[in-house]
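Key idea: predict the complex, not the pieces.
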Amino acid sequence: MNIRKIATIKSSKPVAWADIILAAVMTALIIMLLLYSCSTQKAGTSVEIYINNSLYGSYDLMTDQRITVSVGKPEDGLNVIVVISGGYVEVEESNTPKRICEFGKINKSPQQLICLPHNLVVMVVSEAPPSLNPDDIVVG
Amino acid sequence: MKKLISIALILIVLLGSAMGLTACKPKAGLRQYAPPATAVFGEMRTISAKVYMIGRDDDKLKTAYNEMISELKAIDAEVSTVKESSFIYQFNHASGKETDESYTKFYIDEYRHVLPLITRAYEFYEESSWLFNPAIYPLMELWNLDADSLYNIDLGRLSEADAVKEAHDAISDGTLQETLALTKFDEVITLTEDNGRHYLTKLNPDAMLDFGGQAKGYGANLAMAIADKYDILIANIDIGGNIATFTNTELLTDKERAEWSGFNISVSKPCPKIANPSQSTETVVTFNVQSSSAVTSGDYQRRFTLDEIFYAHILDPLTGYPLNLIVTPPQEDGGIYTYSNDPQGLTSVTIVDPDSELADVYAKIVILLGMDKGIEFLESTGKSGILLSHDMRYAAVGEFDVQPRDNSLIKHYTAVKGYAFAATES
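Result:
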């Protein structure tokens, strides 16, 4: 190795201030992104299906099931199949004339899948955080 | 310089990955599991179980829930009166004569739930002087209170008026008295043991069993035992109105123990909910429990009405008549039976006891006994209950941690002397 080059390396500072600032900024950025992600997306506990903003049904995200959602006029026999499996929900198939659905699996609140043209929304919801003061129970 | 930046970036990526793996994981704190209600009993008219649990482990919560629901469905599979594959259905519909003494003899050890249920049923039958009777199913059919008839009423195939009129006819022509003879539990059905094997025998081909009066409580007991098995901290189950709660205080931290206030259970105002849905959430009194069960029997729900007389779904096994129905025979030749309701009868009885099966059964016994004898029964057995009568009297028997609410309606009731809630006596 060139002696001058070795001398240059030896004389340079091990860590420049610019490096430290860059590392600190990037670390802070990653932490903020992670915290944001965790605070806004809670693990879902159930799935709510809405048609035209009306609740069609609520389903346990932990129970594997296939839900046939009737859309449009009953005589048209149009269905959207929503599948809950392994803690994820997805729109598996649709026989609606315009198959405009968001496909893919979701499992965190408030992620949604939307199917048009019937404005069908599949939404993952999360229960309120556990409380040691549960709601009152009414008997009788 | 470039090398250092590269090293820093690698470190940041590694750090970020490590955080990513851990930051979104469930915290080691409390986890709640409260899935939607699930049908567990019945076929045409179902009874649902609603479970609420708090624990620390999602897997244990889910496993406990699945086991609870599976166990409740297993009970139904054995004791359903309408499912043809169930033991009880086969028992009730068997009529082949096998020996001179018995008509049908069933080996029951292959069923997990029948022996514990029938064993306790005999105990309750004796203890209550025959007021608890799982052999009254023929009477239920006569009053159209069996599952098939109720389903037909739901669908409008049978009107409530016709259902009651059929029973009136059975009273007039003596059929009800004949049917009563079929319901003497220990005379028509026997439990025997032979070399450690248990048998249930019908001594009358028309004898029938129905564990509807105790199966929900029995199931609630099993569910809470499952909660304990899986280290669930706090749980409650509501099986068609039968409430059981569970608290594992040993597993709570000191802080959690201080924060945990137990379950507040309110007794609803006894009024026909279908007729007056706005009053359905009004409560009479509230009490607090940690690990216990609360079961209410009442004459205000699931009842038929004809000519302003109501016919409760609870039958008195001694008379064959619905609870709080007074039947007056004809006073002269050619006269007719007349019907009225007991204005002083009990309308709601809530039993609070750690044993949900006992609470289930005792609620029915006490409501049939009436106010004075009901209090006497609870005192003699050392059990707790809240009794409400049609003439607006109440009695709180046993120890209660009462927490009166602003909306409490108990102020409209007069306490039976010596049985007021401590909080209302001051």
